[in-house]
Amino acid sequence: MNPTPLPLQAPASARAARYADVERAIRALCDGETDAIAVMATVVCELHHAFDYFDWTGFYRVVAPGQLAVGPYQGTHGCLRIPFDRGVCGAAARTGRTQLVPDVSAFPGHIACSSTTRSEIVVPVRAPSGRLVAVLDVDSDAPSAFTDVDREWLERIAAIVGALYD
Ligand code: SME
């Protein structure tokens, strides 16, 4: 049973506690699961319904050199393909660094899958070898929605998916 989504205004301690609950739930639900798509689908479901300010939550997978394709997601339709030289997702894939964007309108080349998106965070997903296998993208209709608490915990949760790859 998903708890009531945590409001944007909740204190950092409550945000961190909710992420800890989500991580525990993901690990319990996915215990023994080796299929990455199944785990991705579970991750985005648990994350999306846990936070009121998550308006689009999804993965983009590396499907060819320099090319991302949409994976499991929650929210309105997402674009299907993103090259590494475009968008916030492309920047995360290209640099290998989390992109924490307080104002998407100020991000050069932002791809607006929804006109209501105001802020975004995109986290690289890496295999144990360090190989980039996907990015985890979260959009919010609230400006400056994401903080270092989101960065830390989304990177932790992304590593759960990354561990499934060679
Ligand atoms: N905003 C992303 C594109 C994906 S849609 O938001 C789901 C970007 O700029 O890469």
Verbal overview:
- With 166 residues, this protein is an alpha+beta fold.
- It has a single domain, classed as Beta-Lactamase.
- The chain has 4 helices and 6 strands, in the order ααβββαβββα.
- Strands 3-2-1-6-5-4 form a 6-stranded antiparallel β-sheet, with helices on both faces.
- A hairpin with a 6-residue loop joins strand 2 and strand 3.
- Helix 1 packs antiparallel against helix 2.
- The longest helix has 18 residues.
- The protein is globular.
- The chain binds methionine sulfoxide.
- Methionine sulfoxide (SME) binds next to helix 3 and strand 6.
Structure described in brief:
The protein is of the alpha+beta class and 166 residues long. 33% of the residues lie in helices and 24% in strands. Strand 5 and strand 6 form a beta hairpin.
Kindly list the characteristics that best describe this protein.
Beta-Lactamase; binds methionine sulfoxide; globular; 6 strands; 166 residues
List the helices and strands and how they pair.
Layout: H1 12-29, H2 36-48, E1 56-64, E2 67-74, E3 81-83, H3 87-95, E4 99-101, E5 119-126, E6 132-140, H4 148-162
Helix pairs in contact: 1-2, 1-4
The chain binds methionine sulfoxide.
Methionine sulfoxide binds at residues 56, 78-79, 82, 87-90, 110-111, 113, 120, 137, 139.
